[in-house]
Design goal:
By secondary structure, the chain is mainly β. The chain has a 24-stranded antiparallel sheet that branches. Strand 3 and strand 4 form a beta hairpin. It is globular, with a radius of gyration of 27 Å.
């Protein structure tokens, strides 16, 4: 950090990262050797560099203004599903994965009782996905070979006004706005390797939110906070290129039906400082989530039916918890229970790929037989509940330890598919660490990460076959990091992850890295 006077600050950070490959665990057994034979994970290369700069200005004790800029350029490979059939493997590569963003943040005191906070931003994301004939990734002359660029832009901002009506009562009013624009187009290749490029397709949407919150001190130790928001979004444009839904006519540029949406959110919370050591809280909230553009419009390479009418899903949450601090020991915990309605699930639906719907083509069309496609629908309901615990302590000078645990049970289903299981979340998950600093500037940090089984979906099954859910294996993953500050501005570090070289999978077909060693150098100026 460079300090250019008492009230101006400049921060700069440059990072360059490159991974030639990562290795699979030694006990990995190849299922389809031509796709993955073990050792170095094929197509696991990644490269990126990032620059970040931030300038801040504090004209007085209450006001603050900051401007930050981040630019990142990267590329990455796409490891293959280890159980795919060779004829359906996705030989993909992302040669471009670039992000830029600029943010402005401000805090301004308006007299003695009011504060205005604002934020404005512009985000830019450009990427290209390339699909090749085979694992050599040198030719593009088959029906599934393509180049697919994305150009995404988002801008918006927010304003929050805090007003202290009295020493015990604070009112907050906030307004948020976001504009999203997604542009895509695809170049498909013929057997001669000649490309045919689609017209540009644009999806544009605006999202608004108005929120009000009141924080009231019922007593010096008891605070009640209640708040709510009304959110709405306007779908301005949702273009697609192909045969309009329900038809198999010549490909044209068309618009999905426009569906605007609105929803509300409410929450209330009590905070009680029971003693100097003990703090307790209880909360009740009802929150909604709008479906994404991917859930509403993506045809997922002719395997899904769009659903422009998809509604928001809602969760009603109850939580009680607290924290206890005694000297250098701190314990935190919470119990939670949630009811879920209109949950968005991917539903198997007999349909026709060429019409992206349940409507058959008007005339016989090659490759357009009735098969199982998927569609995002508001068909799920249920509940989930669990506990979160954490503890941290300084047990000796220079030696800190900590651990956390999350237990969660999810009971979500929809009547049409009794075999459905919620995927991706383990029932039990924990993490423990120690930070030993035997001398100034040196930190030795061992850790252990563990999780129980989680459900996943076997995705290599042909689309016409029933979905099959199964549990991945539990794992215990040990790691170690050693950092040393050479100077005030230069740090070096070495370490390793998955030191026991455990073989485990979080999602079907994609095993996690085996034993990994790393080294880094950080320079601040």
């Amino acid at each position: 950090m460079a300090d250019d006077g008492a009230n101006r600050h400049l921060e700069r950070d440059v990072c360059t990262c490159s991974t030639d490959h990562w290795d699979l665990p030694n006990d990995f057994t190849a299922k389809v050797p031509i796709l993955e034979d073990g050792g170095a994970r094929d197509f696991s290369r990644t490269e990126d560099w990032r620059v970040n700069a931030k300038i801040g200005f504090t004209p007085n004790a209450t006001d603050e203004y900051a401007l930050s800029y981040t630019h990142q350029e990267g590329s990455k490979g796409a490891p293959l599903h280890i159980s795919d059939q060779v004829t359906t493997a996705r030989f993909w590569d992302w040669p471009s994965w670039d992000i830029s963003s600029i943010y402005f943040l401000s805090t301004t005191a308006l007299g003695d009782r009011a504060t205005l906070k604002t934020r404005a931003y512009y985000n830019k994301f450009d990427s290209i996905l390339r699909s090749f004939n085979d694992r050599t990734q040198t030719t593009q002359s088959r029906p599934y070979a393509f180049d697919s660029p994305y150009e995404d832009r988002a801008w918006g901002g927010s304003a929050e006004l805090d007003f202290a009506a009295s020493d015990a009562d604070t009112l907050r009013l906030a307004f948020h706005y976001r504009h999203d624009r997604h542009v895509e187009f695809q170049t498909s290749f013929s057997t001669a390797g000649v490309g045919s490029t689609e017209p540009r397709q644009t999806q544009t949407e605006e999202t608004f939110s108005v929120a009000l919150e009141n924080e009231l001190k019922l007593s010096p130790d008891l605070t009640f906070t209640v708040g709510g928001s009304f959110d709405w979004r306007n779908l301005i444009k949702a273009e697609e290129y192909g045969a309009p839904l329900g038809t198999s006519s010549t490909s044209v540029l068309y618009n999905y039906p426009r569906r605007d949406a609105d929803t509300w959110n409410l929450q209330g919370r009590f905070d009680w400082q029971a003693s100097d050591a003990l703090a307790l809280h209880a909360s009740l909230s009802s929150r909604a989530r709008f479906p994404t553009s991917f859930e509403r419009f993506s045809q997922r390479f002719n395997t899904a039916i769009p659903n422009p009418s998809l509604k928001a899903e809602r969760a009603t949450n109850v939580e009680i918890g607290g924290s206890w601090t005694q000297g250098k020991l701190r314990v935190e915990g919470a119990l939670f229970y949630s009811w879920v309605d209109d949950a968005i699930f991917s539903v198997l639906t007999p349909a026709y790929p060429c019409t992206a719907s349940t409507t058959p083509p008007a005339t016989a069309t090659p490759g357009c037989a009735l098969t199982n496609l998927t569609q995002s629908q508001n068909v799920g309901s249920g509940h989930y509940y669990g506990v979160e615990l954490s503890v941290s302590a300084t047990i000796l000078p220079g030696l800190d330890i900590g651990a956390n645990y999350t237990g969660i049970k999810r009971d979500l289903d929809y009547a049409a598919n009794p075999a459905f299981r919620p995927t991706g979340v383990p029932t039990h998950k924990g993490f423990a660490w120690a930070d030993w600093s035997p001398i100034d500037g040196l930190h030795i940090v061992p850790n252990i990460d563990l999780a129980s089984n989680r459900w996943t979906l076997f995705t290599a099954t042909p689309a016409s076959a029933p979905q099959r859910y199964y549990r991945t294996g539990a794992y215990v993953n040990a790691g170690l990091r050693v950092d040393y500050a050479l100077t005030e501005h230069v740090d070096i570090g070495v370490g390793g992850r998955n030191l026991f070289d455990d073989y485990y999978t979080l999602t079907d077909g994609f095993p996690e890295p085996g034993r990994t060693l790393f080294a880094n150098l950080r320079v601040r100026y």
